[in-house]
């Protein structure tokens, strides 16, 4: 399990499209990706729940990558969230 802390740098916060793309990355790589905000945690495949977190610009979230090939997957996830979240 690899954890990646991230500050939301998109002025619009978390949105469905980038979360869905993150879920696609997880499916293709055979990993699970979770998002944590405060005490809440959810799988990125549950887009509605991720959006309900209400993560806004400047807030901290933690991305957790778990499963097969998590080292490679975490590098791809880091690059993706840097450019899209």
From TrEMBL:
Alphabetized InterPro entries for the sequence: HPr, HPr-like, HPr-like_sf
Main location (coarse class): cytoplasm
Keyword flag Nucleotide-binding: no
GO annotation, biological process: phosphoenolpyruvate-dependent sugar phosphotransferase system
Domain HPr: 1-85
GO CC field: cytoplasm
Localization, UniProt: Cytoplasm
Gene3D superfamilies (alphabetical): HPr-like
Keywords per UniProt: Cytoplasm, Phosphotransferase system
PANTHER family referenced in this protein's UniProt entry, alphabetically: PHOSPHOCARRIER PROTEIN HPR, PHOSPHOCARRIER PROTEIN NPR
Protein name: HPr family phosphocarrier protein
